[in-house]
């Protein structure tokens, strides 16, 4: 009798231990299934120096019309690594527009390094909350530097896919017009270029009226992106926008820039193999 009682007690103990393990396993499998079957492929924007989370409002109005309505979510990460958000992503929206901005939005190598750390915080928050497995990245001015640094240092391609990166007026060699004078930010990004996601498509947009600068950023500084991306990513394309609204601060209001985003990011998203179809 005693032997049988101990066997029964042992079996009960094993059963009690098994239930939490099964629950944990099922939860993990469910989370993984939700993550990899995500229908959401957000387009995530980062503004340049001194710009807030509202920097892309006018541009978003261009994309939002009755036949194609995108949710808009804005996030600002403060200097204490806390996230403040405005807006929501609709349940059935496959192409939400997300902005990640920073309370400390100043220029300079040290500030850009901090912003890139805060970008990691924001991306962890977004992927955990919305369970997407792929995204598109767009950065205006220093926002392109934030994206590039993040993709080299913090991005994990085992968990997430960046389909394309589009930089707009991004000063990869700061404000230097002579490429021989390589700046700290260029050396940082060039040194770690081999860590970039190799299956990513990159579009680099430069604005200019005279092929010298866009009023702030030298054309040669934007062009320096080729030394970072060429032979490291699946495809690299540089596009030059000229004429009206081609200076640095008005590039986002340029109809050609909006068309390039529409054709290369928004429209390509519809045929994205990383998105689970309904």
What does this structure look like?
With 278 residues, the protein is α/β, with parallel strands linked by helices. It has 2 domains: 1-36; 41-269, Rossmann fold, CATH 3.40.50. 39% of the residues lie in helices and 18% in strands. The protein contains 8 helices and 8 strands; from the N terminus they run αβαβββαβαβαβααβα. Strands 3-2-4-1-5-6-7-8 form an 8-stranded mixed β-sheet, with helices on both faces. β2 and β3 (83-86) form a beta hairpin. α3 (109-130) packs across α4. Mean pLDDT is 87; it is low at 21-37 and 273-278.
How would you concisely characterize the structure shown here?
Keywords: Acyltransferase, Transferase. It comes from Bombilactobacillus mellifer. The chain is of the alpha/beta class and 278 residues long.
Layout of strands and helices, then pairs:
Blueprint: H1 2-36, E1 43-46, H2 57-63, E2 72-77, E3 83-86, E4 97-102, H3 109-130, E5 134-140, H4 142-153, E6 161-168, H5 184-191, E7 201-207, H6 219-223, H7 225-229, E8 235-241, H8 255-269
Helix pairs in contact: 3-4
């Amino acid at each position: 009798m005693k032997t049988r009682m101990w066997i029964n007690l042992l079996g009960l103990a094993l059963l009690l231990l098994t239930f939490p393990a099964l629950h944990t396993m099922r939860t993990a499998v469910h989370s993984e299934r939700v993550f990899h079957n995500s229908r959401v492929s957000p387009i995530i924007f980062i503004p340049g120096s001194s710009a807030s989370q509202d920097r892309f409002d006018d541009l978003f109005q261009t994309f939002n019309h009755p036949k194609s309505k995108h949710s808009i979510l804005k996030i600002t990460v403060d200097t204490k690594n806390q996230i403040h958000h405005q807006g929501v992503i609709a349940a059935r929206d496959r192409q939400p527009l997300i902005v990640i901005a920073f309370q400390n939005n100043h220029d300079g190598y040290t500030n850009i390094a901090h912003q890139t750390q805060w970008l990691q915080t924001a991306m962890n928050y977004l992927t955990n909350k919305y369970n997407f497995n792929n995204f598109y990245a767009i950065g205006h001015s220093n926002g392109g530097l934030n994206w590039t640094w993040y993709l080299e240092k913090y991005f994990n391609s085992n968990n997430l896919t960046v389909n394309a990166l589009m930089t707009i007026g991004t000063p990869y060699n700061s404000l230097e017009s002579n490429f021989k004078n390589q700046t700290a930010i260029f050396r940082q990004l060039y040194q770690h270029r081999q860590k970039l996601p190799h299956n990513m498509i990159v579009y680099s947009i430069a604005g200019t009226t005279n092929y010298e600068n866009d009023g702030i950023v030298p054309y040669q500084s934007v062009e320096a992106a080729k030394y970072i991306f060429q032979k490291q990513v699946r495809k690299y394309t540089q596009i030059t926008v000229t004429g009206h609204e081609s200076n640095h601060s008005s590039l986002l209001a340029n109809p050609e820039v909006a068309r390039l985003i529409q054709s290369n990011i928004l429209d390509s998203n519809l045929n994205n193999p990383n998105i689970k179809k309904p």
